[in-house]
Amino acid sequence: MQRTRLPIVLIVDDEPMSLQALRRVLEEDFSVLTADNVADAQKVLSEIPVQVVVSDQKMPDMSGTDFLANVRKQWPDVIRIILSAYTDPNDLIHGINEAGIYNFIPKPWQPEHLTLTLKNAVRLHTLQQENEQLNIELKLTAPSWDSKLQQKRAELKHRHHFDNIICADDSPMTALCQQVARIAPYDIPVLVTGDSGTGKELITRAIHYSSHRADKPFVTENCGAMPVQLLESELFGHARGAFTGATTERIGLLEQADGGTVFLDEIGDTSLEFQVKLLRFLQEGEMRPLGSNRSRKVNVRIISATNRNLEKEVLAGRFREDLYYRLAAVPIHVPPLRERSMDIAVIAESILKHHVLAYSKPVEGFSDEALECMSAYHWPGNVRELENEVRRMLVMTDSTVLGADLLSAKVLQETCGELPALDQEKTDEGSLKDRVERLEARILKQTLIRQKWNKSKAALELGLSRVGLRAKLERYGLEQDKVKNE
Q1: What is the pLDDT of residues 300-347, one digit of tens each?
Q2: Interhelix angle for 455-462 vs 432-450, to 10°?
Q3: CA–CA separation, 254 vs 287, rounded Å?
Q4: According to the model, what pLDDT value does residue 94 have?
Q5: Which candidate, 457, 420, 451, places its Cα nearest to that of 438?
Q6: Where in the chain are the domains?
Q7: How far is the C-alpha of 62 from the C-alpha of 69, rounded, in Å?
Q8: Are 52 and 125 in contact (CB under 8 A)?
Q9: Are 393 and 406 in contact (CB under 8 A)?
Q10: 262, 300 Cβ separation under 8 angstroms
Q11: Cys-Cys link to 252, which of 149, 237, 243, 335 (CB 3.0-4.6 A)?
Q12: How far is it, in rounded angstroms, from Cα 405 to Cα 412?
């Protein structure tokens, strides 16, 4: 069986412990190479087709931005990322101008944020390679290019249509998609709220590709944890000499997206200073790059998203009320996965179908017991956590069906299924005896699931005799036809 080739990432840091920690977090999704000095890193880049390089900013032989500036000159296709505990806006902007860095990851980094950033960087590298290939084709076959472009646009519209958002027929997402589909064709600001990982960006892309702007750019910007000056430069652009390190003119994302849609993610994390400048743009429909004395008209639709309650943020004085009403002409709330358990099975099946192809593993589906446990779990990380769980089950299995025994301990601990003999709705009520019995029943079923309902193995793990285990199973109503190996 051929193993899927992982994207190659080079980590450059002079601290061995930092390299080890980064490798442990990333090696599941990437082929990780490391270097503790610039010379070794350059040797790796000259010999291996690296897609993304992540460099620490503070290194003894050369700063991260200077190193990445050299990488930009010698290997311009490599996506460059800075990792640093220092957040001086001038240093960051200098790095963007000189080194052309794709993103800045602050220390201490979060594993999920780090992995997601690198996955997006790999996607960007892939798109750049595809774009270069398309440019070659354009020169060779210009007439066919227009047809291919139209075809790609049609594919994007189909892929991001509301009908392709996975949900059950009785899901609250069905009504939500119908509501959003009605407002999509109109140029009205939309604010999408909901927990992280619920699919806010899916809704946003569906709005764009269902509007008259579908053939124009769709640009996203994550506004969270970014210095004001850097965020302003990203969106509005800057003139040459606008600040220290601004050696060239930069066109902002708003101007790049002219005619299309701009998605401002994590808008609730922005500062009041930036909110004033964004409000001015929304009111006047024109922007002025940093350091420029010339305003530019820009026609974009703004869609924003946040996992915060902006109404509470307004009351607390952390978000401008006038900006809130500018952004939230149509507020849309995406419910978390725990409030739409009917979606869990269909989303899990869709995720599995996608990764079965990617991993080339002949898995047909989930067992009923696995789907029961997954549907009962509360999924605090929402769809993103569910996808990680499905991927983990897929790579761990040797069978064609993913059973409940493959689920992680945190899922099994909370989702042992319905226990017929006990009321689990009030686990913190009742006498000590009642509470102990609930705990005992849950441990029994969790162990049976993990041991694939093999009584002998379950009894051995729990330190019980087979007779004692059978008595407890009868007491708690856990005897099932699927119990194996009597």
Answers
A1: 999 999 999 999 999 999 999 999 999 999 999 999 999 999 999 999
A2: 130
A3: 8
A4: 67
A5: 420
A6: 8-124, 163-335, 337-415, 417-486
A7: 11
A8: yes
A9: yes
A10: yes
A11: 237
A12: 9
For residue 321, give the 3-state DSSP assignment.
helix
* Cα angle 223, 228, 233; round to 5: 85
Could you give the 3-state DSSP secondary structure of residue 424? helix
- Quote the CA–CA distance of 10 and 346 in Å, as a whole number: 37
Q: Decide: helix, strand or coil at residue 107.
A: coil
Question: Hey, what are 76's tokens?
Answer: 């311009």
Q: Residue 324 is inside which H or E element, if any?
A: helix 321-327
Residues belonging to the chain? 486
The DSSP letter of residue 446 is H
Separation of alpha carbons 64 and 54, rounded Å = 9
Please state, in angstroms and rounded to a whole number, the distance separating the CA atoms of residues 267 and 275: 9
CB 464 within 8 Å of CB 472: yes
- Count the neighbouring beta carbons within 10 Å of the beta carbon of residue 263: 25
What's the rounded Cα separation, in Å, for the pair 220 and 353? 28
Distance CA 474, CA 486 (A): 15
163-335: what CATH class? Answer: alpha beta
Sign of the alpha-carbon torsion through 345, 347, 348, 350: positive
Report how far residue 21's alpha carbon sits from residue 30's, in angstroms, rounded to the nearest whole number: 14
Predicted confidence (pLDDT) at residue 141 exceeds the cutoff of 70: no
- What strands, in cross-sheet order, belong to the sheet with 261-265? 218-222, 261-265, 301-306, 190-193, 330-333
In 3-state terms, what secondary structure has residue 195?
A: coil
Phi first, then psi, for residue 302 (nearest 5°) are -100, 125
Using CA atoms, how far residue 384 sits from 11, 116, 200, in Å, is 25, 10, 12
Output the six-digit token pair for 48.
């291996």
Looking at the domain that runs over 417-486, which CATH code has it been given? 1.10.10
The C-alpha atoms of residue 356 and residue 393 are separated, in whole angstroms, by: 11
Into which CATH architecture does domain 337-415 fall?
Answer: Orthogonal Bundle (1.10)
**What radius of gyration do the chain's Cα atoms show?**
26
Q: Report the pLDDT averaged over residues 365-394.
A: 90
Q: Which two tokens stand for residue 86?
A: 């220092």
Instruction: Single out the residue of 178, 275, 285, 263 nearest to residue 232, CA to CA.
Output: 275
Architecture of domain 8-124 in this structure: 3-Layer(aba) Sandwich (3.40)
Beta bridge partners of 160: none
Q: Which of 2-6, 224-228, 362-366, 405-409 has the lowest mean pLDDT?
A: 2-6
Shared fold status for 8-124 and 163-335 = yes
Contact indicator for 364, 399 with CB cutoff of 8 Å? no
